[in-house]
Design brief:
Layout lengths: L8 H15 L6 E4 L12 E11 L2 E11 L6 E6 L1 H4 L14 H18 L6 E5 L5 H7 L12 E6 L7 E2 L1 H7 L14 E2 L2 E3 H8 L2 E4 L2 H6 L3 H4 L3 H6 L4 E3 L27 H14 L11 E8 L5 H13 L4 E8 L1 H13 L4 E5 L3 H10 L2 E4 L9 H7 L3 E5 L2 H6 L13 E3 L4 H14 L3 H12 L5 H21 L1
Parallel strand pairs: 1-4, 5-6, 6-10, 10-11, 12-13, 12-15, 13-14, 15-16, 16-17
Antiparallel strand pairs: 2-3, 3-4, 7-9, 8-9
Helix pairs in contact: 1-18, 3-4, 4-6, 10-13, 11-16
The structure holds adenosine-5'-diphosphate and alpha-D-glucopyranose.
């Protein structure tokens, strides 16, 4: 959860929803691990000197509880301190997941209930995100079902990315979770292909399931996108809803953005140009010939999901023809990191590459670029394209998941649309979309119009938060009618 710990868009979404719910009159309590890198003192967290006792297998484990708030809100955030589980450098373990992620996240999923008891909080809904917290859905319907505090609590499970499912060894996971092997048999709610599958567990035990865009909600019914879970999703299809992620415009608005060299808005696009020039100077891409060349940016995890292969396939053709400059910020698979380092070495005046994670730089690249590329193979939602729109940076995207729900091809006759799209996962189609984008660059009224269209889009998190409340109500009705 931003600003405490982040690996991707999940952190932005889990931070913006409670803030919106607070404005909409709802009370939210957040529980998350006290990861070693969270700067607890900077964010004002304090130890409560309370300890939660968490049943694991046949014994009890514990966590010290720290309390703080989401910045600029009254939303309490409880951090669970357990050195065996969370006092290590990473969050999930990179590049390979920690071998004890089953135990770490089953512990977290169970501890949530004990925190609620400790602070005397009776939730209407428990909202869990992705496979790491999926076991809360199972605990809610088993160990805590007859506890009066939770007997009317509804479970809502949000899928941010079906590609990460949490495949656990049944002997370990069923034992840690307190179910035992007698509950594990082919076709049971925990089982998929003879393993415990945390994602399936969350889906099966939840009262309602959401995912992060309407198109992804449809796509994952098909084997191409379902990562093997199409039957599970089919079985629970009536309870599955796609809610488009929203953007927290307090963080992502060029008019308010303190990371920028010059703030700007749609009436002052010179400010955007100042950001571009400064970025080019800072990164050594400002050779004097052709200062006007477009700048294409990418801020992304460097994984196969993000369609990096399509970019790699065509990039030397574009750079060889001197058609644009490229700025890449990201980290991930070493094959991609190594390739981009090579590219920056080969084209030092055309390509800037920063392998790492850098929030300030991400704002500056998004503001300074003319275009952002997101050729994703699949994209449950994607936030960068929505940030780009607000900054008048034109997205070039593959039409999938949330990218399809937010980006519409520019139509120069009707002057509608906010970006450039392609459908097939194919490098030629991608290159064709890039060419269409380049041909519009700096072309008088069309260039003005597409940027205006982009900056006028509103994907605010308040709308998205309201949609969640509807699903929560629906889940609560389901539980109460039982
Ligand atoms: P995903 O969650 O699949 O990575 P999203 O588009 O939903 O994709 O969210 C990615 C988030 O992470 C965005 O806020 C983006 O700006 C940020 N981000 C990704 N890579 C980096 C990086 N290297 N440095 C800074 N921010 C990054
Ligand atoms: C996942 C998805 C991304 C989505 C994010 C937040 O990481 O890959 O598409 O935007 O979650 O929901």
């Amino acid at each position: 959860m931003v600003p405490f710990a982040k690996t991707g868009g999940l952190a932005d979404i889990t931070a913006s929803l409670p803030v919106e719910w607070e404005k909409q009159g709802q009370e939210t309590v957040v529980v998350m691990p006290k990861y070693a890198h969270i700067d607890v003192y900077a964010y004002g967290f304090k130890p409560t000197f309370m300890v939660v006792y968490v049943p694991i297998s046949t014994w009890t484990e514990f966590a010290h509880v720290w309390k703080g708030h989401l910045p600029n809100s009254n939303i309490p955030v409880y951090l669970l301190e357990n050195n065996d589980y969370f006092n290590r450098r990473g969050i999930y373990g990179d590049p390979n997941e920690y071998p004890d992620n089953d135990r770490r996240f089953i512990f977290l999923s169970r501890a949530v209930f004990e925190v609620a008891k400790m602070i005397d909080f009776k939730p209407d809904v428990i909202h869990a995100h992705d496979f790491h917290t999926a076991f809360t859905m199972a605990f809610l319907k088993s160990q805590y079902r007859n506890d009066p505090r939770f007997s009317k609590t509804a479970g809502v499970y949000t899928i941010h990315n079906l590609a990460y499912q949490g495949w656990f060894n049944p002997q370990r996971a069923m034992d840690f979770a307190g179910f035992g092997m007698k509950e594990f048999y082919p076709g049971c709610w925990f089982e998929h292909k003879s393993s415990v599958n945390a994602m399936k567990t969350g889906i099966m035990f939840a009262d309602k399931i959401t995912t992060v865009s309407p198109t992804y909600a449809k796509e994952i019914r098909n084997p191409y996108f379902s990562e093997g879970l199409q039957d599970v999703l089919g079985a629970k299809g009536g309870d599955l809803v796609g809610i488009l992620n929203g953007i927290y415009y307090n963080e992502w608005d060029p008019e308010k953005d303190n990371y920028l060299h010059s703030k700007y808005n749609r009436d002052y696009l010179m400010g955007k140009h100042i950001n571009k020039i400064n970025f080019l100077k800072e990164t050594g891409l400002n050779d004097r010939d052709n200062l006007d060349l477009p700048l294409i940016g990418m801020v992304s995890r460097l994984t196969e999901q993000k369609g990096i292969d399509l970019l790699i396939d065509k990039i030397e053709y574009f750079l060889g023809n001197n058609l644009f400059r490229l700025a890449i910020l990201g980290s991930g698979e070493s094959r991609y990191e190594d390739y981009f380092r090579y590219l920056a070495w080969k084209y030092p005046k055309r390509v800037y590459v920063n392998i790492g994670y850098n929030n300030t730089l991400s704002h500056r690249i998004i503001a300074g670029s003319d275009f952002m590329v997101l050729p994703s193979r699949f994209e449950p939602c994607g936030l960068t394209q929505m940030y780009a729109l607000k900054y008048g940076t034109i997205p070039i995207v593959r039409q999938t998941g949330g990218l399809a729900d937010t980006i519409e091809e520019y139509n120069s006759k009707k002057q509608t649309g906010n970006g450039f799209t392609f459908y097939n996962y194919n490098a030629d189609d991608f290159a064709y979309a890039v060419n269409r984008a380049l041909s519009l660059y700096s072309k008088g009224k069309h260039w003005d119009k597409i940027r205006l269209n982009a900056m006028s889009c509103d994907f605010s998190s308040s709308g998205s938060a309201l949609e969640y409340l509807k699903v929560f109500k629906w889940a609560m009705d389901k539980v109460r009618l039982k």
